[in-house]
Amino acid sequence: MKRLWIIIVNLMFVSLPVLSWAGGGGEKADQLYHKVDLTNLTGLNYVFAKWYNDNIWLYAIIVVVLMGFIGLIIALVTDIILKIIGMEVSKIEHHE
């Protein structure tokens, strides 16, 4: 019974903000997207801002792939540094 009560209370907490949004009451948005000003940008900043302005989905895909690639590079460099200083970074063997 206690578990059911916890689920009901959590569902109420999740649904309350949605009910307040449905009430209207706010001002209507006149611009639903944001454009980046390209006048003072150069190099990579310009390229990324242009992708953001032209095609937000392409920008999102490029950023996600780039973040994964940078994470991989950071992990590999960390692995090399730890091997140089003598720490073992291989998988841990678990014996029961």
Rounded to the nearest angstrom, the distance between the terminal CA atoms is 38 Å
Can you count the helices? 3
Strand composition percent = under 5%
The portion of residues assigned to helices is 55-70%
- Uncertain parts: none
Counting DSSP E segments of at least 2 residues, the number of strands comes to: 0
Q: Helix and strand string, N-terminal first?
A: HHH
Q: Round the Cα radius of gyration to an integer and report it.
A: 24 Å
Largest sheet: none
Shape: flat
| Mean pLDDT over the full residue set | 82
- Structural class by sheet pairing and helices: mainly alpha
How would you characterize this protein structure?
This protein is an all-alpha fold and 96 residues long. It has helices at residues 2-22, 43-54, 56-84. α2 packs across α3. It starts with a helix and ends in a 12-residue tail after the last helix. The model has no long low-confidence stretch (mean pLDDT 82).
